[in-house]
Amino acid sequence: MSDRPQRTNTYTADPVNDRYRECLFDWLAAHAPLWNQINYRRRQQYFDEDGDVWDAEYTDLYEQYVPLLGKATCQQLARKNSDAWRSHFELLSLSRDESNQAVTEKPSPPGYWGNRDDGYDLHGLVRNDLYDFDWNEDKSTVEFGVGDVLEDRYDFDHNERVTLEVRGNPQWRGDDSRLELIYEEHAETLRVQHPVRIQPDDLKEQRQAAFTHTLNTENTTHSAAIDVGANNTLAVVTETGDTTVYHARPEFERFQQQSERIATLQAGLPDDQYTSKQIQRVFDARSRQRDHSRDAAVKHVAEWLLERNIDTVYIGDLTAVLSTHWSTDVNEKTHAFWSHRQLIARIKLTLGDIGITVMETDEYDSSSECPSCGSAAVTRSGDSFRCEACDLAAHADVAGAWNLLQSEVGPMARPAALSAERGRDAPHEGAYWQWNDHEWTPADFGEQSWSVDQTSVSEPASSQPG
Questions:
Q1: For the whole model, what pTM was predicted?
Q2: Residue 361, domain extent
Q3: Percentage of the chain surpassing pLDDT 70?
Q4: 393-420: burial string, b at 16+ Cβ within 10 Å, e else
């Protein structure tokens, strides 16, 4: 069972009446103190020279919390804390491996869920066999039990359970895993995380059902390369010459504006305060908008790749390059807005689910030579790429993906020449896409992108069609 892939459905929810609401918040509030006490004992062992976090005793704490949470929930909380420590040790091992560039800083041990003075994080857990969903067109609900003390306090009948009205539809179907409820106080929203474990064959079927096209391995399959970035979320080149670019500058500009808003709000806080409900709302909105556009781009390009029967995708690994970049603006893009490793993980997950193999390869200097003639006499300015030797004028990220793909598959069809200087639209030869807050649509500024013959060298810039 542990080998089965896990996917998570996410919903919002509200208690169906005030009595359940009060009970829910008492139940949620009891989780953090237990987590903190278990975690404190393990941290004491961790920082003790001769200690071992797995030797920490904590089951005596259950006597205080079982009446509120129930024994099963106390056990789930301890297991979640164990998971957090195991993840910490895995990251710690990676950080000590000089050959690994994914984790370059020493990770911090698991932290606390708030404190008594500043308030606790409201985060609850329910074992997989102790909750039930009832899906209905009019009103869907989830039910779960609480400890005896709370049942008595709120005058529960025999077998009565807290009932929440759930909003959202399950994307994934499978065997239930541990349910998690997280109350975001600044947004006054209760979020329900519902993980399910899926049989590998079922996962493939469920994922493919979300796409119009499917990978057909009985026909000729092809390879592609993706240049991932901040100015352009994705730039793709296939070995048959197709290209597409997902333009991200407007999203980064909005991200910066929200960052400036956060900084302004922080400047107005008292000296001993770092955040507020308003700041957290802006921060969460910024993250949700970024993740929505980026995740939608990955799904959109997955459909685009399936349509072209691509079975292998190469992605540049920029970890070593990004860790030492001198530009603060670029660092904000790559580490805050872009979040390179998170984006790569999303691409691997989505493409892997539909049968496309993702290979990471060194992208260092992939845009520093001409993909057409191999000359290093090139200039880049923003999206613009120009070769002084053969006069190739192209989109810089397309040139990077072109170089990356040729390094893996050898000589290939010349890609459609999406040029940075040309109007952005979606002709058959190549497409620009822009985000409209809901979906990726063809970017049309009134002038079509130009294309070139698949085998000829581009004409000088002065004679290119405009």
A1: 0.73
A2: 211-463
A3: 84
A4: bbbbbbbbbbbbbbbeeeebebbbbbbb
